[in-house]
C-alpha cells in the first residue's frame, strides 16, 4: 500500500458513511455539471459530513489515524485548511491532533494585509494541508504554493475522497512534491453492498463507464439526446 492506495478498512467504512449520509449523489437522467463544465452522473458533497456528528467524528478519526500511521505522530507543526470546504476539516483534524490551525485563501483578500494565510505559519513549520476531496489537484497546488511562500514546508495533503478520474492529477501533485493521502474513492463506493439498493445494474454500468472515461461518456450522452 502506498500514498495513492487507501487503507482497505478505512476505504470501505468511509464509503459506507458517505453513502449513508447522502454525500454521494447519482442522477443519470439529469447529470450534474462539475466546475470544469463536464457533465457527470455522480456528485460528491463532503460538506454534508460536518452536519452529522457521529459520521464526522469517525471520518476525522480515520484521517488522523491514516496520516499518523504513514507520516508519524510528530510529523507536523501545523494543520492548514483550504478555503472554503477544507476549513472545517482542517479545524477538526487540528483539534484531534492538538496542533495549531491555519486556513489558506484561494487568492489574497483585497484589503487589510492582503494575506492568503489566516493564522500563523512560522518559517520552517511542517504543514499538513487538509481538504474535503481531490479531483485534478489544481487547488491543492495553489494552496501548497501559498504555504511555501509563507515559509512553511508542505509536502502532504489528505482528503476524505479522491475522484481519480483525471489521469494527470496525481502526476501534477507529484511534480510539485506533494503526496496525496485519502480515505476512500470511487472503487470503494462501487464495491459497496449499499450501491445495489441505489442503482440498477444498467445505471451502475453507466456510472462505471463515466468513471473510466468521462469525456466519452459525455459524448455518448450528447449523441443519445
Largest β sheet strand count, sense and barrel closure: 6 strands, mixed
Strand order of the largest sheet: 7-6-5-8-9-10
CATH class: Alpha Beta
- Gross morphology: globular
What is the CA-atom radius of gyration, in angstroms? 18 Å
Q: Average pLDDT across residues? A: 92
Per DSSP, the total helix count is 8
Strand and helix layout:
Blueprint: H1 8-20, E1 24-26, E2 32-33, E3 39-40, E4 42-44, H2 53-71, E5 78-82, H3 86-97, E6 101-104, E7 117-118, E8 126-134, H4 138-149, E9 153-162, H5 169-175, E10 179-185, H6 186-190, H7 201-212, H8 214-224
Parallel strand pairs: 5-6, 5-8, 8-9, 9-10
Antiparallel strand pairs: 1-4, 2-3, 6-7
Would you kindly provide a written description of the structure presented here, covering whatever features stand out?
The protein has 225 residues and is an alpha/beta fold. It has one domain (8-224): Rossmann fold, CATH 3.40.50.2020. Helix content is 40%, strand content 21%. It has 8 helices and 10 strands. Strands 7-6-5-8-9-10 form a 6-stranded mixed β-sheet, with helices on both faces. A two-stranded antiparallel ribbon has the order 1-4. It has a two-stranded antiparallel sheet with strand order 2-3. Helix 1 runs antiparallel to helix 2 and helix 7 crosses helix 8 (214-224).
Amino acid at each position: 500500500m502506498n500514498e495513492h492506495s487507501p487503507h482497505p478498512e478505512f476505504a470501505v467504512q468511509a464509503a459506507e458513511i458517505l453513502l449513508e449520509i447522502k454525500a454521494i449523489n447519482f442522477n443519470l437522467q439529469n447529470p450534474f455539471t462539475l466546475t470544469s463544465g463536464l457533465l457527470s452522473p455522480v456528485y460528491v458533497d463532503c460538506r454534508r459530513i460536518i452536519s452529522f456528528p457521529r459520521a464526522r467524528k469517525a471520518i476525522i478519526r480515520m484521517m488522523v489515524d491514516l496520516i499518523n500511521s504513514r507520516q508519524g505522530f510528530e510529523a507536523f507543526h501545523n494543520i492548514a485548511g483550504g478555503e472554503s470546504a477544507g476549513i472545517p476539516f482542517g479545524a477538526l483534524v487540528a483539534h484531534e491532533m492538538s496542533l495549531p490551525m491555519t486556513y489558506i485563501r484561494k487568492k489574497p483578500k483585497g484589503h487589510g494585509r492582503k494575506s492568503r494565510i489566516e493564522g500563523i505559519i512560522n518559517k520552517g513549520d511542517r504543514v499538513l494541508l487538509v481538504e474535503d476531496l481531490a479531483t485534478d489537484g489544481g487547488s491543492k497546488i495553489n494552496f501548497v504554493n501559498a504555504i511555501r511562500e509563507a515559509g512553511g514546508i508542505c509536502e502532504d495533503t489528505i482528503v476524505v475522497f479522491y475522484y481519480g478520474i483525471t489521469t494527470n492529477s496525481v502526476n501534477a501533485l507529484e511534480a510539485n512534491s506533494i503526496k496525496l493521502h485519502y480515505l476512500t474513492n470511487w472503487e470503494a463506493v462501487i464495491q459497496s453492498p449499499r450501491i445495489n439498493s441505489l442503482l440498477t445494474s444498467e445505471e451502475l454500468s453507466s456510472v462505471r463507464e463515466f468513471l473510466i472515461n468521462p469525456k466519452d461518456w459525455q459524448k455518448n450522452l450528447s449523441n443519445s439526446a
